[in-house]
Amino acid sequence: MTVYLRGRASPTDEVRVTRAAYAERFGALEADVDAVARTASALGLAVGDVDPARRSVQLWGTLAGLAGVFGTSLGTYRSDRGASFRGREGALSVPRDIAHCVTAVVGLDTRPQAHAQFQIRAAASVQYTPPQVAAAYGYPPGLTGTGECIALIELGGGFRTADLQAYFASLGLAVPSVVAVSVDGALNSPSAPDGPDGEVLLDVEVVGSIAPGARVAVYFAPNTDQGFLDAVTTAVHDQVQRPSVVSISWGGAEATWTSQAMDQMETALAAAAALGVTVTVAAGDGGSTDGQQDGLQHVDFPASAPHALGCGGTSLRVQAGAIETETVWNDPAGATGGGVSDAFSVPSYQAGAHVPPSANPGGHLGRGVPDVCGDADPDTGYTVRVDGEVVPIGGTSAVAPLWAGLVALLNEGLGHPVGFLNPFLYAQAPSTVLNDVVTGSNGAYDAAPGWDPCSGLGSPRGAALLAALRASTSPAG
Question: Is the pTM of this model over 0.90?
Fold first, then answer.
């Protein structure tokens, strides 16, 4: 299990530091780490890896011992899909000696935390390669992402070298540098096209063909709250791979997360912002309900985290290499996620975006999702090679790496990372750097001029965005 700790301080959005400096200024206090180690040892637990920058301490022990220390009971349960998992009953408690410094305890519960936001369409009406989509969105020419590292968070599945070799050869590109990074014991484990392999290969092939000069680091972790958090914090603070952008195509409705896990993830994304790392996150494929069956509207997390660049989905038609039409993605098989967060208040950068009240009873105000959008309709999907098969894949899972690839190009073109991009994008209204998508609905919310809870601010105009960033007086964020 992983225990997360408070930091020395919390960075503001104006802070930009190196990874080494972050650990010194904002990492865990040595006294807090020592206190957790002493208390855990006294209670019969073993201390594993300690990472002050990530503010994390791993603890090991018997299940009975761990449950006893943190005041809960554990049992074996079965999910709706028949998978067995360990779950807990009731709230957690933290030993009094360390209650003041512990912010999250994850790993006692092993239920699947997230699902991949992709869809395979057996017979799409049209398929595009990722470079064709990038060209339609005006991605800046002459840039390849050289010198950048793109991190992909994967909670299952894997890739085969043979697939990558065949796919990139079909595009006339060299195979990019792709490295697998193990988190919490998870490995690159390819299985079948309709499983999580579809997500992994979609992510790798989209970023690798849009930014072929970038290094791609794939962080494999267990699909639990601990695995998800540990993967993100590992990628953000990785001083070996040093990613400048993190792409996340996994998530779940806010209602399926614990408050402590959401708060800890948002803390990790705020750390990314301070380090100049952009985090792009799929907004979900379940429309305004996010696939929940309680009659209410929900947004997907971590896309709803204030320091995430939430990526919604559109249906894109391209003619002669240019956008012919672009509308909100919504068909009988799925629709873009989007709406108003139940967990996070309206961030300062959305103050002028006119985020509407929630469509739920009470009409509360909260963080609006998504921020941006891109092609996600499986019927106008991406050509992807998975486990020897060439298939069209869509979903907002494609939009997170689509934007991550663009960020790598922007970083190369600017000579510095754009970092936390949200404040810059919202300050451009009326936008010249995005295509405003004004037609369509995701269920409870309709598209409209300006920001809306279906398409956000719009889809990318890559070269225009690079020009605007170059013209700004300081790096975004």
Answer: yes
pLDDT tens readout for residues 195-212:
899 999 999 999 999 999
d(CA 338, CA 283): 6
321-368 pLDDT tens trace: 999 999 999 998 899 999 999 999 999 999 999 999 999 999 999 999
Structure tokens at 454: 């279906």
**DSSP assignment of 397-427, as one string?**
GGHHHHHHHHHHHHHHHHTS---S-HHHHHT
> What would the DSSP string read from start to end of 259-278?
HHHHHHHHHHHHHHHHTT-E
Close Cβ partners of 175 (under 8 Å, ≥ 6 residues apart): 161, 164, 165, 168, 208
Domain ranges of the chain: 2-106, 115-471
Residues involved in catalysis:
199, 203, 397
Q: Which long-range contacts link 467-476 to residues 24+ away (Cβ below 8 Å)? A: 468/424, 468/428, 468/432, 468/433, 469/410, 469/414, 469/418, 469/424, 470/413, 470/414, 472/424, 475/16, 475/276, 475/414, 475/416, 475/417, 475/418, 475/419, 476/418, 476/419, 476/420, 476/421, 476/423, 476/424
Between CA 298 and CA 335 the distance in angstroms is 13
Got the DSSP string for 310-374? EEEEEEEEEETTEEEEEEE-EETTEE---EE-SSSPPPGGGTTTTPPPPSSTT-----EE-SEEE
3-state secondary structure of 231: helix
CA distance 361 to 383: 41
CATH domain 115-471 topology: Rossmann fold (3.40.50)
